[in-house]
Amino acid sequence: MQINEFPMTRGSRLIIERLRSRGYLAYAVGGAVRDFIMGREYNDIDITTNALPDEVTDVFSDMRVIDTGIKHGTVTVVSMGEPTEITTFRADGKYSDGRRPGSISFVRTLKEDLARRDFTMNAVCYGPGEGYIDMFGGIADISGRTIRAIGDPETRFTEDALRILRAARFSAQLDFYPEERTLEAAASCRALLRSVSAERICAEWMKLVGAPGAPRALSVFSPVIAEFLPEAEPVCRSEYTKQVFDSLGVDPAFRTGALFAMPVIWGEKRADKAVYDFRSSAARLRFDRKSASAGEAIVLGCSRSTASLRDALRLASEIGVKEASACLRIMAAAGGGDPGLAAELEQAVANGTCISISSLAVNGDDLMKLGMRGREIGNALTAMLGKVIDGEIENSRAALLGWCRKHYHSFSNK
Ligand code: ATP
Ligand code: MG
């Protein structure tokens, strides 16, 4: 495979040249090299070197050096405005709990450093003037779109179970397929994920589920998903997941909600059970608040019957326009709901259809002037919003105040 020279950025080139001029080895490695070979955009260029962290700090004493994880051999140097991570050649000691290296040791050779990396595709490095150094067949695996553990997959997953989830995440992001033994080991070692922190699982999950190749990766890695999202696992294997995700866009919280909502749409699960399952999963994996409530809104919204634009507007007034529109798309893709309703809803809202109390032509002060107090006001506003959405009252001051005067007693009696 003919690959162009890796385009070092000015900052990373300067770092490598400086380290080399002091007699050290230094290469670009990891995700950026992999992504360039694939023709994908990449961000940060990671550098690997045999200089010890203190030596790196010394070499770049005239630049800003940030201690990213000196104990693990990583410092960040800000070179020409680019923060660049420089990691000393290292081998990970025996992992005591499948989570973090029990001890790490710095090693002398590039080969030892590359051997401790997770997958062959992540162990290709590049040296300016030297070209690519590919000791584990990473370039062939990149061109074959294959995820292959370096060394014995079971050993590597036992050392660090997060790699199991990284395999699934890369599969979704890059549209790669795991090689047979790597996939078998991912499934057989999946219980080790219990020792990985919720935060790290959550971070990988969000990247995985929001990636373009998520439907296939979810299906291929469904035994792994079952380990931390057991209720979502059957849907991961469903043929509908692809069309649901495609219709929905990439929002990871919406997509996660969809996985819990689909059995409700199919009549296989009660809505309150699905909401409960989603809520407990989100709490267990420590979803951030926004993702937890967005996903829950999706599960709840997908349990509503939404046959008409009015139903859709009512749903939007309860859970938000974006959320309601997502639910309509999920329901259309998974269960034969009206495929045009989401766009109709968005259009109606864009045209100014009132779906919130704050857009009513009257407000709380107006109702106080009519003599209403406290909860009566909220109740009246909510009732009016319902009538406006249903097209029973026009959203004008005169119509709303007229309606209120007429129904005043029904609120003040509450
Ligand atoms: P991304 O595009 O997501 O940044 P990446 O491959 O650069 O992907 P990073 O998490 O940035 O991933 O890690 C940089 C490199 O460090 C990887 O390419 C890999 O060589 C190595 N690495 C990272 N995490 C692990 C791990 N858990 N086990 C072994 N090697 C790892
Ligand atoms: Mg990276």
What does this protein structure show overall?
- Helix 14 crosses helix 18 (321-335) and helix 15 (271-284) packs antiparallel against helix 16.
- A hairpin with a 3-residue loop joins strand 8 (125-127) and strand 9.
- The protein has 414 residues and is an alpha+beta fold.
- Helix content is 54%, strand content 10%.
- A 7-stranded mixed β-sheet has the order 3-4-5-2-1-8-9. It has a two-stranded antiparallel ribbon with strand order 6-7. A two-stranded parallel ribbon has the order 10-11.
- It has 22 helices and 11 strands.
- The model has no long low-confidence stretch (mean pLDDT 93).
- It binds adenosine-5'-triphosphate (ATP) and magnesium ion.
- Magnesium ion is lined by residues 30-31, 44, 46.
Keywords:
54% helix, seven-stranded mixed sheet, two-stranded antiparallel ribbon, binds adenosine-5'-triphosphate, elongated, Beta Polymerase, domain 2, 414 residues, 11 strands, 4 domains, 10% strand
